[in-house]
User: Fold this.
Amino acid sequence: MKAFLAIVIRELKDRRAVFAAAGFAALLPLLLPFAPGIGWSSVSEVRELVAICMALSLGWILALFLGAGMIGGDLSQGRLGFYFSRPVSGGAIWWGKGVANVLLVFAAELIILLPAFVLSGANPVFAFNSANWWVTLDLLTGGSLSMIAGLLIGVPLLLLLVSHAIGIMWRARSAWMALDAALFVALLMVLWLRLASLAMEAPLAVIVISGFFVFSVLAVLFLAGWAQVSFGRTDIQRGHRVLSGVLWSGVFVTAVTAIGYGAWIVDAAPDDLDMIVDVDSAPKGPWINVFGTVPHRLGFMPQFLFNRVSRDFVRITHCENSSRYLAFSSDGRRAAWVRPVGNGNHQLVYADLGADRATIRETPMMFDDQVSLVLSDDGTLVAIPDWRQFAVYELETGRLVIATRLLEPGYVRTVGFLPDGRLRVLSLHYSDGAIFSVAHYRIYEIDLATGKIETSWKIEPARAAVDDCGLTDDQFYVSYNKTSDRFLVVDGCFGRYRLTVREGRDGVVMRDFGRFHEENWPRWSLDGRRIFGAFVEDGRGWLEILSVADGMIVRWPLGPAEDLRLAGESEYGEVLVACWLPDAERALAVDIETGVIRPILGGSNAAADRIWRGFWVSRDARLMLNEAGALLEWDLENRRSVWQGAWREISRDRCGIGGMRVDL
Assistant:
């Protein structure tokens, strides 16, 4: 300990000129606010900004120069033998010189910063008020004091140790230096490639892994410096070999650990999901697109194509975590999405969905960003809508089929491939100068062979609503049914909702149902012959079935209810409705023809508690996603339900894709 303290004191005395340089640098922040042209600004702001910049600059420069010479300089000038001629260990020499140089750097930074912040009093501008004129520094650091601390402490420490290692390698002038350079370049390339790919899927993991790597390298550099002094002693070439051996061994172990941890983070399976955030199902077949959270993986949210029957899955590389960026074909045999491939480019890929397995295939189509996709019925064509235009391509070859410019700018809401080689496009248009105020919808019919717009017509809200500053797209609702090629339109005017059905080809109103209950937006039946609605009146729930052909309206009572959620029609002629009171929650299957009500889940079934407030239902009404992020699957034909909970245990707080059957 005495030797260590003696070396620290000796080193501080030998380099005492650093204190004088820091004192001189500390004068600049105090004098600069009084320079011409700066008097209009706050003196404290200027003083503190300049002090921080001076401290950072001097601290980093000192770290580089002091690190390069603290051991290497003594070795090249033959002064290190003075210490070894006495009963002093290599560890005492290394730690004594290292601690002394670290103290020099931190003391220099403190000498520069202290006067400026003492003069600022109890309320320094260092609190990062973004209204200050030096907002650039605030943005640079994210307004974080921990970031400033890292720049003032962490970076100088790293520079000190790195410059020491480089100084030893340079002064040794041996062939080992070429190997050091090669290993350094290889390390950078491997880390860059791995972290760049990881950053697209788990950005938080990249930050954590990078921090772990930097701190581990700091520890390895300390250990390598100690080994170099202790075992290399005054022989600089032997010291270089020892330093390189310890350094690259430690860095290799650290890199393998970091890369392995990153690979484990993204190597998740559907059974690892603890909460499902978004899900979509293929129109036919067992495949679903599911996206959710995985515990203990630093915020990683994987997305999968998952086969509910065979349990085969394919992980999708970052599809913007939304089902709207992945499209299924109507026959359920193909899915397509856009994945990032680096340099801001995105490639369109697709999967052939077999009965048991999925095969991923690439296409030559590249895009600058994520795009929405619509597949044709057989999955051979893909439509890509844009702001005012859209294009149709052959999916496998990428050949452009048509590119059509719409008549006016708008948001393409729906694209439907019709059986006779036509394309139906529904676009939403907002009013000029009115944010989110719907002006109208426009419907196009486009010939796929020529790319020409054959017909175009509008769906406009009631004139009174337009004069009253317009309606939002929640008040003016349009839904397209491809099977019948018809649109249902819900037009809300001063709180009164009117439901009409229009032909897809020319917009002719073929059925006007008059006033409609606005609690739940209506849903088409699977065949497009009926429209379903659900509402609460006088404390009782009702299911409303509207026949498009003859205009008949049938209402079936659902019992006491405070709120309802209409799910959709199943393949067995039943409509699924979520119904709840404050102390009871139920899911009901209502026979369309007879009105017979069959409970699906609820009552004493613990698995159904508090699950219906917000949910998603698949097209065939076999899957439901509840507000807790758990997935339910119904086997309606056999009148039983599958609770898709955690694979090993069922918990309302932790639910994923697993299996537990609930017989009713």
Q: What stands out?
A: Residues 174-267 form one domain. Residues 236-266 form the longest helix (31 residues).
